[in-house]
Amino acid sequence: MLLFSFFYSEIFQRNLENLNYHTIFSLTIIYFSYSLYKYILKTNIKNITRLAISISLILISLETAIFVLFTSLIYLFFYNNKFINKNLIYTIIIALIIFIVIWPSNIYNLSLVKTYLMYFYRLFVVSGAEYSDLNLLNFLINIFFNNYGLIILFLFSIIIFLFMNFKNKSLYGLFLFNPVMYFLLIINFSHHSNYLLPSFTMMFFFLTLVLFKNKLSNINNILNVFIILLICFINFNYNFDNNINKINKKNDIFLIEDYLISDLKVNDIIISDDAHIFNYYLDIQDMITLNLYNKYNPKFYIEYNDENYDLKNVIHQKLVRYFIINKSRQFKQEQYEYLLQNDYIKTDFNNYYVFKLSKNS
Hints:
The structure is a single chain. This protein is α/β, with parallel strands linked by helices and 361 residues long. The chain has 17 helices and seven strands. 60% of the residues lie in helices and 8% in strands. Helix 5 runs antiparallel to helix 11. The longest helix is centred in the middle third of the chain and has 24 residues. It is elongated, with a radius of gyration of 24 Å.
């Protein structure tokens, strides 16, 4: 039932529409969770090596791995700080050596360091402007109603866990703490349900521990089945055109895709708010990013060579076929009226306005 609920949840199926780093990270995080569990139960050379390999793999898979490592250390410190010892230091050193061996270019181009500096800039220097358009409440409501079966199962299992009394309960709490903290840390930056798959996957590992308790052979078997099925689902998705995920097109991005391709020509120019998201998920021509110029007083601008260019004259000359604008932007009504006055037709989606140049223009 647990496997069925996970693989047929919307959050899992939606992830298969595009192979992405979050899917790969979800695979490696299962291996990390299992390695950490074995390491805590018995700290020997085999488990130190396995944990070191898993740490290097999650760091290579996705930059948010640092969240999981940090929350794990915090929990272990308060659960039993005897684990913060020389063995852990050796494990980290081995993990770094493996990381460099697998990704040697990091030594001279510092890719990971640059990535974290870039995120620091986006979050603190420009005050998270990239994420200012996200509607957290709507996103959470959509996640719940599209995955209510799986979420209810998770919540029910957590309640049972809290009231159960068995050996290693505090240890198991680590594997509940990690997915919950990851969910809370990543939810504010989630443009898509893909971002939450690692949290759901870690929750699956936690429930596996609870269901099978200390029966390590059973845990190992169920995780092997999980990984095999996950790989099979991904392989099936990328070898057959009849992807089951295309059935559910509630997301605006895919509704807009249908709308565009019905009348899109090769030379049509599309200027879009959130263009990087559309370009990532849609297999159509690249969109040009609409630059707001100012978050609180937005204008129709694009950026080129670090310079902002006003699109007012471009709109008047009808050089752009489509404009896609996030509804959360604080554009004035007269700005929308200017598009309409220049023969653009507005189509209303859940989170976006799409302005399409009339065929008569």
